[in-house]
Amino acid sequence: MTHTSVNASHDASGDDRTLRGSLGTGSIVLMVVAAAAPLTVISGLVPLGISGGNGAGFPMTFAVTTGVLLLFAVGFTAMSRYIPGTGAFYLYVGHGLGRGAGVGSAMLALVSYSTVQLAVYGYLGPAMSSLITSYGGPEVPWWIFSLASLALVAVLGFRHIELSGKVLGILLIAEVGIVVVLDAFIIADGGPEGPSTAMFSPSDIFSGSPGVALVFALAGYIGFESTAIFRDEAKDPARTIPRATYAALILIGGFYALSSWAVVTAWGDKGAVDIASTDPDGMLITTATDFAGTVTAHLIQILLVSSLFAAVLSLHNVLARYIFVLSNTGVLPGAGGRTHRVHGSPHIASVVQSCCALVLLGACIVIGLDPVTQIFAWFAGVATVGIVALMLLTCLAVLVFFHRTKVDQRLWHTKLAPSLGLVGLIGFAIAIAGNLPLLLGGNVLAVVMTGVLVLAFVGGFLYARRRKQVSFELPS
């Protein structure tokens, strides 16, 4: 078996194959939280969770989801100290469950992250078009804005990672800050019924369709594990990566729970369900107008666009680094594993990712898919299914790895927390499976898109078994 080191500084031709950077905990957290697009979640997913899920009890769904993912993160970060290099979920699956499962998970991850990136591009175009027309500008086709955004992401992704980090940091602080300001106005006012207590009431939490609520809540956490992808570009990764993972989860979960509770409080328990059902797209803007004024509402509308852009930029960085590592380990052609001599970025992998995104988005444009009800809804749904499957495999891999190697004897970190996380993730999977037709737009589409995920995993598994030179220091 031939081993290809991802950390080697140069290959035989003299090409640099080492990612370079000095990202601290804060920079990594910013990129991870930006990928979650927090303003987009509050504006888009929260109304859907309230109207189609468990109503005024929806904020507690974020708290439950955060708790399960924190349990998962305990084992994930404990294992990270024994897994060198960049690679996120698939590298952990490979070390725990074998090379075939690892490469299969890598292919599943590429498909899942590519689909969620495509979904956000689909939402970004109409959001920009609506913003322009709301200020008296001309009506421009949504796809013009989506393609322009893709071009800008391609330029930023080609350059040094710290440039992307600075851009994401500015955008993220602005979008989180404006929602926190709105939360403060709502809390100070108290709403028509006073602070909502529905999120603490079991009858409200389990009302309606909790499974649907869970799907919408979980979609807001996609990308949190990407902290590990930036390992080779981080300062002191043994400390930075675990800290960034916990910090990202706590910040995301706390922000979602607080802000969704504030939105419910603003309307009252029944009023929140009514407005979320009749005007989900305008719920947040209307709330901002009523409680914080038109200026705040306009700022939120502008920052929603920047939130979506920050998400696609962060997802681009994640996908480029997946391609980079897979190119250095024999799964993909080796050219994608080179780094830029000046920027230290995976520039070829970045270009490949941009081209793939262009092909996918271009196909959707040519076919004539609706950017929101089809591109965004369908592909965000299939991405959620894929990411939950990856987390399940990773959690199982953590348990198997520590049981087999005995390198860490801490009961909580290696057995209890991962086991509890696995139980929670199985519950998530059952809830998602029961709502797949709703999530993906019908039974036939649910079968087709789930089949694509299965084929990606099986294809990667068989490829690794047939191609012995594929290795990222994984057991056979």
UniProtKB/TrEMBL annotation:
* The entry's keywords: Membrane, Transmembrane, Transmembrane helix
Residues covered by the Amino acid permease/ SLC12A domain? 28-447
Top-level taxon:
Bacteria
Membrane disposition? Multi-pass membrane protein
Location relative to the cell = Membrane
A biological-process GO annotation:
transmembrane transport
GO cellular component entries: membrane
**Pfam families to which the protein is assigned, alphabetical:** AA_permease (PF00324)
InterPro entries attached to this UniProt entry: AA-permease/SLC12A_dom, APC_superfamily
Is Glycoprotein one of the keywords? no
Protein name per Swiss-Prot or TrEMBL: Amino acid transporter
